[in-house]
Amino acid sequence: MNKKTCIILSEKKWNNNLVNKLKKKSDNIEWIKIDVKNDFNYDSLLKIKPNKIFIPHWSYIIPEKIYNNFECIVFHMTDLPYGRGGSPLQNLIIRGHKHTKISAIKVVKELDAGPIYLKKDLLLKGSAQEIFDLANEVVKDMIIEIVKTKPVPIKQEGKPTLFKRRKPSMSNMNDLESLDEVYDFIRMLDADGYPHAFLETEKLKFEFTDANFKNKNEIIATVKIKMKIE
Fold first, then answer.
1. pLDDT tens readout for residues 38-71
2. What DSSP string describes 119-159?
3. How many CB atoms lie within 10 A of CB 95?
4. How would DSSP label each residue in 196-222?
5. What is the C-alpha to C-alpha distance for residues 73 and 54, in angstroms, rounded to an integer?
6. HSE (CB half, 13 Å, CA atoms) of 120?
7. Among 3.30.830.10, 1.10.287.3240, 3.40.50.170, 3.60.20.10, what is the CATH number of 4-163?
8. What does each C-alpha distance from 184 to 50, 114, 129, 216 come to in angstroms?
9. pTM of this prediction?
10. How far out from the chain centre does Cα 25 lie?
11. What CATH architecture is 168-227?
């Protein structure tokens, strides 16, 4: 039996252990992780000849030449077609969602508009990092299911709802009015590589992580205080 090759494409550290877990579940597949943008190019893929490219977390546009010649499957943290677009986790939490689905879709030209292979439930509890770690386990199971069952992707149905990618300046908590809003705001940005929730004065910036309710009227959190860059 010829050994298949599959790629895991992600620039996030929390996906580093995904390859090792997949290796234990599938002896007949060689798993390769790519985490640098310059390493993900058409010429390199021609040498690797992957059967599938799985994309748990990638912040860059997939070139048309790549998705037209290789099967690219992206995992999006919404119940598509609801929530197409950037910053899905933050956009879900700020809208009050407690649950979502991870949608595995085929990459096409239009962002997050490809046909769907399958969906799995995901609980939006805890910090963003905790949610991403939980999503990592769900994605692992989805990848194994796709490899084993070879589902045919089905066209998305319904009117899409679009999300906009958040900017670092939008992490300012200055306009929040309730403790529930503060708690959700801090936790939804509390992950490696994300611009943490902050408040600022003329000279100082206060960044918040590790938020928890001490009681219904009080939140405790870790704060990092930095001089603002002029």
1. 999 999 999 999 999 999 989 899 999 999 999 9
2. EEEEE--S-HHHHHHHHHHHHHHHHHHHHHH-PPPB---S-
3. 11
4. -EEEE-SSEEEEEEEEEEEETTEEEEE
5. 5
6. 16
7. 3.40.50.170
8. 40, 30, 13, 14
9. 0.92
10. 23
11. Roll (3.10)
